[in-house]
Structure of Cyclic pyranopterin monophosphate synthase:
Amino acid sequence: MSRLTHLDEQGRATMVDVSDKAVTTREAVAAGRVRMLPQTLKLILEGGHKKGDVLAVARIAGIQAAKRTHELIPLCHPLMLTGVRVELTPNEADSCVDIEASCKVSGQTGVEMEALTAASVAALTLYDMCKAVDRGMVIEAVQLVEKQGGKSGHWRREDEQ
């Protein structure tokens, strides 16, 4: 197994030097889910929430978070993202909202953290906007689903849930 990349030879945390890496198109997809009471999901779907369109606000929050990942995650490179997509899909059968976030860049380092941050912040925004009616919501299964590009090539989660 290779060593952790954010540690230097003395074991100190450092930002990885990517200056020798080739610029390639890189893309990452992350997913998550917010489980809630059926009546909470119904309120969201009917647009009856006093705070407005909950799904639209969560989508924008996820996109904004992806763009600011380097400000939130120490040692994460600032990237000029070329695309960010955040999809929120209501799932009435499981009484939840499924989240999928994808980020794309032409650069020297990957966008996994940006996709994970987008999915996480979209989930947190859903929670924040609905907590007054359902404090028992659960944010779960935030995970990297797929990444493409760069030296390590293509990877896809085999155990997708």
Summary: The helical segments are 38-45, 54-67, 69-72, 112-130. The beta strands are 24-35, 83-91, 96-107, 138-148, 155-156. Residues 83 and 104 are 5 Å apart (CA to CA). The mean pLDDT is 91.
